[in-house]
Structures
1.
Amino acid sequence: MTFTSLEFIFIFFPLCIAGYYLLPKKCRNYFLLAASLVFYAAGEWKRMYILVAGIIVNYVFGLLLSREYKAKKAKLLILISSIIYNFGILFYYKLLLYRYGSGVILPLGLSYFTFRTVSYCLDVYWEMMPANKNIADVALYISFFPQISMGPISSYSDFARDMYERSFDTRLFLDGVKRIIMGLFKKLVIANSLVGLVDASFNMDPASRSISLAWLGLIAYLIQLYFDFAGYSDIAIGLGGMFGFTLPENFNYPYAASSLKDFWNRWHMTLGAWMKSYIYIPIFRACQGKKMKQLTCYLLGSLGVWLFSGAWHGVGMKTIYFGLYYFLFIAGERLFEDWKKARRKKLGLKKRPDTLLEKTGAHIYAAVFILIGQLLFKCQSVSQYVGYLGSMLGITGNSANQTETYFYLKQDIVILVIGGIFSFPLIPFATKRIKAAGGEKVIKALSPVVYLVLFLISLAFAFTSTYKSFVYFMF
């Protein structure tokens, strides 16, 4: 059962909303916990013991980490044990996947609830939050069904505030409905519609794939990937809002980035925030404690983040290359900015705003190297990556054009255009201008109609299309 399945849309979710608001407030967290366990069991009942064991073990770790120990090493040993347990299970399945290939499927949401269990233990260890003595509350944080499959990733300290202090908010509830509709549209109408084009392009032999189809397929993949994951995140955030939880944003128009650092500040934002808090900052502070230079601390912290990120995004050396690719570019951007700052200081110049030409160049640079980086993410191996890149550059003996390009372009042009428009902040920009011109009442009047139309279109696609899993379910 997924967020876009008919069972979820018409049975599970309506029953959840009805049951939640019919119950007294003191029972609602327990109801959400039960609903979350049912949701997980519907998708992964054979390996549900992994989730249940994770809840119990980390509840105990939390209690142990909250105790006062005369020897700090005892507390540190408990923390290390918790990290080894949580990430050990994750990388055990990653190892199985590496050895036996696609026949191995990771347990549903394993990566995401692992982030939550580690966050809980570290927040308690760092005394950011006290250990929770109610195992049901810990279980709800780890298994909350809007987030368990693919995030967004919340720290325990952030989630705990809403778990105890939330109340019904009409605006948050209605915004949640809108986010769910937008998420369904992004996934069912845009992302799913491009699967045929993407699969055809990437499954083709490099010499048979024309230059035009290679470029079209990669652009379609970037649109598909973005709307697949952003669609899920919208639904998750919307579901949380309808239950009174304010879940963190996960995307901020990443393809509008002006650098690769900017791209990752906009893409899967909660993963970046988690890695900054729990990987980068500890490494950086440890380096500072050893009296290393700030730049050295930055580089080591960033390298740790990107090696971990690469390993998390898959298995094999390809994923390590993926992490190193972004590390080298982002570190290079930092070094270039430091050089410009030092040069301005030497010449006594003040920092000036970038010119239009400089801004355009920055966006072109980002677009080119995001394309190349995300191609590595898509390809199953380095050899496939090299072959596809060769097709794009026309060095595999392939033709410049072929009939398949016209076929897919004609078939998917509307979806590609819609995806292109929604990939950039054009709609918010236009809405802001209309409001400034006094058209706010028109927007308020049309908004319900627009969302109703989007919902009906999404339902039509849900009824007529075959099942297509979310891309990030594999993690």
2.
Amino acid sequence: MRRYSGDNKKPSVTKIIILAAAATILFATVLDYFNIGHLLIRGPKTIVQLVTDTGLKSTNGRVNILLLGIGGEGHDGPNLSDTMILASIDKSAKDAVLVSIPRDLWAPSISSKINAAYAFGQEKDQGGLELSKKTLSLLFGIPIHYAVRVDFSGFEKAVDLVGGLDTTVEIPFVDPQYPLEGKEDDLCGLKIETQDINGVQTEVVKTASGSAIILSQITDQENPFTCRYEALTFKQGPLHLDGKTALKFVRSRHGTNDEGSDFARSTRQQKVILAFRQKVISTSTLTNPTTIINLAKTFNRSIDTDIADDDIPLLVKLGQKIDPQTIRRVTLDAGRNTSVLDVGDPTNYNGQYVLDPKTDNWGDLADYVQGEIFKLEEEKVQD
């Protein structure tokens, strides 16, 4: 390891305005512009924090924040983390790194995919944020100081509240299998029967042609339940996204032109995050009290965080200093020559599709992540 050794509260209205932006780490300027006066009158302690930069949790000069996106109520697996990003920010704000974490990455400490950590924690007294932080910390050997969880319904509404987002599609793609909400278990007029196959009672799907497909062996390439999906098309060039389309753009997993990969998906997520940040800090948003209030209400219903009120002024100060153009992006994925992950042997993971280290050494994965976080600092030392 290079650098590291090994209570959730409902946000206040003041806190919500920053967390609407803090969900993407870089939105702290919103609170400074709109609410800094309110923060300052809280007392001498706040003023001392702003002046001296003391009190913000950090290790080896870096603040690490875990960002989680879940489907929320009405979605299949509502508490599974479909989006996971680790933000590591140098306290001088001269270096910020976003590490995108695939939901299929195996987490040995919970014997499951890492996207299940929040859901497991919610089922226990430990809490979803706490278990997510602990799981990631054990996996990468990195202390996680803060965590923010946003459900996608809140994100979708927030995008519409700011008038949509503008981005550019660099690689066009078609996704023929984007899941339709509420259709996850629809049989599409087909029947599931039990047949004796080699002496074993096996569930099969009878197709319209009369052929039978073993239910447990259905693949993306041969999936008879076509009514469960819609086809998405994103053409190359400028694109204006409303809330629903923005969500589809970042969640699509079966795109052509290699846009179904974790790397491509993470790239799209980061593009939308920055587009949302730009829209939130725009004059049209910040000078519209109705929009600000509605954003606060939206995120009040869809955010879970362990960021304390006393830490907000320091996060504001840190966020002010970050230059978005200097943010470094790291994506953990499989399939590329430079990927550090690979598809694991299903027999080692209860038959599941999972990602694990290409070297089969979890310590190598932790070293890689830590190396990327401290990359600039180590380059300076070598020079």
3.
Amino acid sequence: MTNLTKPEMSPVNPDFSSGPCAKRPGYDLAHLQNAVLGRSHRSKLGKARLLEAITRTREILNVPEGWHIGIVPASDTGAYEMAMWSLLGERGLDILGWESFGKGWITDAVKQLKLDDIRVMEAAYGELPDLSAVDFSRDVAFTWNGTTSGVKVPNGDWIADNRSGLTLCDATSAAFAMDLPWEKLDVTTFSWQKVMGSEAAHGMLILSPSAVERLESYTPPWPLPKIFRLTKGGKLIEGIFKGETINTPSMLAVEDYVDALKWAEDIGGLTNLLQRSADNLTVLSDWVGLTGWVDFLCAEEANRSNTSICLKIVEPDITALDDDAQAAFAKRIAALLDAEDAAYDIGAYRDAPPGLRIWGGATVETADLEILTQWLDWAFATAKEEL
């Protein structure tokens, strides 16, 4: 069988992990030689580099001037939980979850914050909740892109313009790869290690004027750890949004993020970042359309992620197996590709249905994905032959 023959070419960069994600094309540690090391992050030089990261973020993402951008501890998780703990409880909450991370925020709201007035709106992997049922007189918490399910919201049209509640958006696998309508988003969070392929540990917190107003007018009834505190004396701590971080950041990681932002600027900014990711999804969409053994986990084309691209195996001989055997088969495909240095870390997330998850963010080269499709066919045929 032809598809049992190994492809002649391999991806130049086999890093298709959904986090930490592939480093940018042309990445070299030598680009970090100007990192502010051995100096205080509160020195003039340190604060200037942190502010540079904030400023470049604003420029690339086209964040409006009235929105505050801060660097905060603990990656996207820290940024989103900081927002939840600081802002929620003033009014009722509609919270949406359709995969692991969104459902994690539901756990926070229900079991940790124990909010009195909460509507939980969930959907199975591969689907979205009913967005038309969301009440924007309440606060609304959701992920823009479900990293572990490959399902994103199609756009921001479902978000009311005249809302009286706040929208809290986890955009960690969406920022820099999907068009975010800032006027619809009051809190937006993401991590450097996703679409920009930078080093993790720090998160970005972007606040609209309405979010700042809530912070300055509302005091939550629960204790706030120091790393969550965004106000002092009822006023926003402005320094957080000018590079005066709450805790000590890794200046090496900051330099790595700045390097990625410079690369984004060099290739044409957000327009080209979005196009690169869209092109990557097109490669896999075209292949899936021609391939009988695989399909998208997300059936609705408009809702398919162009970053965390989740696939399921639909070959009848495999779907006839029990759940454990199907999971083992998918893991075998991923293991074969790993052993051949053709693709690393493309197994489905541990809580997701069995399958494959391939990162298609802007740092992944389209040509590498084209080659990967040949290896996927080989790995499937090889794994099936082993049954």
4.
Amino acid sequence: MPVARRLGLVGAGSIGQTYIEAAHADPNVRLVGIADQRSDAAVAAAESAGCPAFHHVQDLIEDASPEGLIICTPPVSHFEIAKTALGAGIAVLCEKPLCLRIEDARNLRTLAAENGVLFTMASKFRYVDDVIQAKAILSSDSLGELILAENTFTARVQMGNRWNTDPSISGGGVIIDNGTHSVDILRYLLGPIDEVLAVEGKRLQSGDVEDSALLVLCTEAGIDARIELSWSYHKPDEHYVSLYGTRGTLSVGWARSRYKRHQDKSFTEFGSGYNKLSAIGSQIRNFCAAIHGDEPMLICSDDAVASVEVIDAAYASLHSGRRVNVRVNSAQVMDRAGGQGESG
């Protein structure tokens, strides 16, 4: 029987609870410690997981000796927590968005490489079977040359006083929050993103961040894409990704997915839809296997950094009102930060 991998978790909020549930369901994963600055939350989560609670990340690392650390805290804290873990030679799986600044994301990638440890961003949609099957269908050329891709993540969510609407903590609004998933899905299916134009929708909720936005992108392969994001309105569409090619169309849905070549009389259904717990469980298993080199991560450190670059370019576009080249923007950001201008 395989030895259970020792993982630590930082952040006992709602997403942290999902990771605890997913880890508990996997006999090859052992949570050895949970840390949260809110001591009561850490204790409650640790009791449910059957492991010690810690107030500080450093104590978790020193006392519990995890092989890998899962970071589920608000984005502003990601850099320092990941830096501490990577510096101690511990692999890191960090929830999205990876970092608020490009230079921080690149510095973490460099630190991980120097210490020879795994560093990756959580991207649950890469672990949804329907999305994986959609990529395989694209690769088979069943749809022909891809012309357009669309992604929609819209829902009525009262954000209230949640940290997601405090830019000093979150880095922005719906673009950096849900949009990070959107960007990674499109990069996974279509390849690197070259340009982005971002337009903010009508702001319906109080706060200092955008609650609706439209992103228009073009990939390095010349494929156009559109991303629609909102916390303030819901589009009753059963599919969240649609792909249009010269030979057919494909849609990835919440409950089921389907594709149809132009010569087909009807759609062919595939997959079983989206299951958050299953996707995160698969992500944890991939992380554990990758720590010991048994298999590669579905999202590597370069993919993680690239997500930060695209989101930063989206905000640069939002503020300038112009289409922004991702590579040029990330180079300019690094120049202003006194770093190197290469793109990841």
